[in-house]
Amino acid sequence: PNLLTNLGWVYHNAGFIEKFKNYLQEAIKLTGDSAGYYASLGSSENHQGNYAKAIEFLGKGHKIDTNRLDIIGKLGYSNMFLGHYREALKYYKTYVERLEASAGVDLQNMQRVGYVYWQNGYKEEAEYYFNKQLEYCNESIELGREYSRNLNAFYDLAGIYAFRGICLLYTSDAAD
Questions:
Q1: HSE on the CB side for 85, CA within 13 Å?
Q2: Per-residue confidence in pLDDT tens, the chain, 176 aa
Q3: How far apart are CA 113 and CA 174, in angstroms?
Q4: Whole-angstrom distance, CA of residue 73 vs CA of residue 70
């Protein structure tokens, strides 16, 4: 099933969405993991910028298994991109709480968590998550982790600095 799913993602990334879905369907026949099936369909829709459709699929997966962190995190992500910041915060809070409870770490998404906190008016909490992301990015670059070798750390750093720069400009304009 993992091989079928991975092969499906290769087709997806090459633009063959229907082949992707066919391979997912074959994988679900072997695993019976319908939550995983919906999680993959939701991820596909996120990649294509279809966030409302992603939420639809992810919601189906979440109803089947409310404990899947990948689905919870993706629901936060999809809602964030639609500007549904309260809903995104609900999912991201759950996501972070469960990560911490399981001693898990997914620091590659903390800038998104911070952004959602910011959009909900929680500036201090937002800065906490932005700083966590900055630390992780800089450490990854220093240690030569895959996250920096594939340039994701640089992308995330640029996003945080750009966001902070925009906020400073906006704050400075308001003060003038």
A1: 13
A2: 989 999 999 999 999 999 999 999 999 899 888 999 999 999 999 999 999 999 999 999 999 999 999 999 999 999 999 999 999 999 999 999 998 888 766 667 899 999 999 999 999 999 999 999 999 999 999 999 998 888 899 999 999 999 988 766 555 555 55
A3: 25
A4: 5
Task: Determine how many CB atoms are found less than 10 A away from the CB of residue 69.
Answer: 15
Enumerate long-range contacts of 68-74, CB under 8 Å, 24 or more apart. Answer: 68/35, 68/36, 68/39, 69/95, 69/98, 69/99, 69/104, 69/106, 70/39, 71/35, 71/38, 71/39, 71/42, 72/98, 73/106, 73/109, 74/39, 74/42, 74/43, 74/46
Query: pTM of the predicted model, to two decimals?
Result: 0.85
